[in-house]
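Entry 12.
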Amino acid sequence: MDKMTGSELHDYIVRTFKRTDKTAEVYDAITDTIMDMCEEFGFEENKVEAYTAVGISALGDYKIDLPDDFGHLLGDVRWTDQDDSGTLNKLSKQQFNEKFPEQDCDDPDDGEPTDYCIFRKQLLIGPVPDRTTYEYQIDYAKFLADPVTSVSSDVMFTDNARECVKFGALARLFEVMEEWDNADRYSQKYDRELAEFVAREKKNTRAIFAMKEMK
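Predicted 3D structure (C-alpha cells):
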C-alpha cells in the first residue's frame, strides 16, 4: 500500500468522525498522533543514517546544526576520515563544559574528536576538531519537520499502520469534543495498534538468538 496524502488521510478519518467543520482539528490530531508514535519508538520508517560535515567547515568550529527533522539519536555518533574512524563518547552539557572549558577561546586546544553533547539542536564536538575533513555519522529517529496539512504527501506510517494513526487521531478529536466514551474507546484501540506495530518492528529488526549446543 502506498502512503496516503494529508487530504486522503483527512477523508479517511472523517468517514468515522463525521464532522466536516473541524478540518483544522483533524490535521492537528493527525500531527500530534504521528509525533506521539515517533516519541514511542524508533520505527524503521523514521530512522535516518546521516553523514555530515556541515558546520565544521572552518578550523576552530566545533558545532554542527542538527537536521530540522531530528528527534533523538539512535546509537553513538561516529567520525571518520580517509584513514581512520572512531566512536564519540556522549556527555551532558555540564560534563562537556567541564572537560572542554576553552572551546570558545581564541586559541582552544584541538585534536582528534573524542566526545560530544547535544545542546539547543546542535552537536558539540570536543576537543575542537584539528581538521575539517572529518565526517560525522549521526543515526537518528526523525520527527515531523512540518505539521501534516491537506497538501502533505507521503504521510508517515500510513502505508503500514494507517489504522494506528486513525485511532490516535480519533481519540484526540473525540476528547476535544468532550465525547469521553468515544475518546476512551479509540484511545484503547490506538494503544493496541501501536503495541502491535512496535512488536512487529522489534521482531523484524532484532538479532536472531541461537542457543549454543551443549557438549
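Annotation: The longest strand covers residues 135-142. Confidence is low (pLDDT under 50) at residues 207-212.
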